[in-house]
């Protein structure tokens, strides 16, 4: 099940975020959060942590502080949802980042639920490798990040991410 926003709704979300609100993932259970998560806005006073999903997943898989979810994805999530970075996105950049987020959640969810790997048999090392070498480059390419203007994603962010994930699939 996926929650899709219309262009008008997405533009409204983008405008709210530019006004210093924060993201919150939707969903009620572990896998619905993992698979159907989509950025929406919530007032800053609610202290919603959009990156909490990675702690929840790590609690289940127990990869620990050096594992993929805590050492890689949670810090990256904090970066892409930080007001400093979000404030630099254009609407195109914001749409692209939301697309990448959803793509990564879907691919990781498919992997962890056994659609692309045997359920429960993925090791932490394998998960880290698959996400870095396959999921990230595939999602960045599929969402058009590698072809957008540097200014759409914020030049510093684009320059950080582009060499890591573009032209790798």
TrEMBL record:
The lineage of its organism: Eukaryota, Metazoa, Ecdysozoa, Nematoda, Chromadorea. Keywords: Membrane, Transmembrane, Transmembrane helix. It comes from the Eukaryota. It comes from Steinernema glaseri. The chain crosses the membrane at residues 21-42. This is ShKT domain-containing protein.
């Amino acid at each position: 099940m996926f929650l899709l926003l219309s262009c008008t709704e997405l533009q409204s979300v983008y405008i709210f975020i530019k006004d210093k609100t924060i993201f919150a993932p939707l969903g009620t259970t572990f896998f619905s959060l993992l698979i159907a998560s989509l950025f929406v806005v919530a007032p800053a006073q609610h202290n919603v942590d959009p990156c909490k999903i990675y702690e929840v997943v790590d609690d289940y898989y127990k990869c620990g502080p050096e594992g993929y979810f805590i050492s890689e994805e949670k810090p990256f999530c904090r970066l892409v949802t930080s007001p400093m970075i979000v404030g630099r996105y254009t609407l195109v950049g914001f749409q692209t980042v939301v697309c990448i987020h959803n793509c990564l959640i879907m691919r990781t969810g498919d992997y962890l639920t056994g659609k692309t790997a045997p359920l429960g048999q993925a090791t932490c090392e394998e998960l880290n490798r698959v996400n870095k070498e396959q999921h990230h480059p595939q999602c960045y390419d599929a969402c058009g990040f590698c072809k957008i203007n540097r200014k759409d994603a914020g030049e510093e962010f684009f320059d950080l991410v582009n060499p890591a994930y573009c032209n790798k699939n």
